[in-house]
Amino acid sequence: MFGHRKEKLSMLRLTVSPEEYLMIGDNIKIVFLGGF
To answer: Angle at the Cα of 21 (from 27 to 26), degrees rounded to 5?
Structure first.
């Protein structure tokens, strides 16, 4: 039947300062406003 497959999940960690942003494509902008 179907074999069991182990999948490893990867996580991307970015270090950003307040007011810095990340562009995804031409029209998606993620802005970091602050945190703890």
So the answer is: 15
